[in-house]
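Customer escalation, tier 2.

The customer says the design service returned an amino acid string that "doesn't look like it belongs to this structure." They asked us to rerun it and document both sides in this ticket. The original structure tokens are below, unchanged.
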């Protein structure tokens, strides 16, 4: 698949002492997204569905901003 980065969400979320999570919005240009080797599943979610995922603690910090973006 091919995607284009559009805009980075403000903020950074700590994953561990030497690593931060940055989130970008993206536009799907072609193909079909598939899970990577490290992931068993890939889903499109609405803001209301975000709480249906068993997120890692490190990822939960970003959810309010992602939900706000998805609600616009």
């Amino acid at each position: 698949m091919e995607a284009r980065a559009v805009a980075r969400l403000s903020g950074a979320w700590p994953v561990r002492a030497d690593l931060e999570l940055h989130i970008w919005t993206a536009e799907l240009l072609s193909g079909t997204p598939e899970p990577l080797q490290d992931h068993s599943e890939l889903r499109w979610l609405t803001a209301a569905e975000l709480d249906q995922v068993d997120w890692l603690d490190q990822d939960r910090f970003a959810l309010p901003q992602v939900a706000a973006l998805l609600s616009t």
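Tier 2 assessment: The sequence is consistent with the input. The longest strand covers residues 2-8. The chain has one domain: 2-70. Sent an explanation to the customer and offered a walkthrough call.
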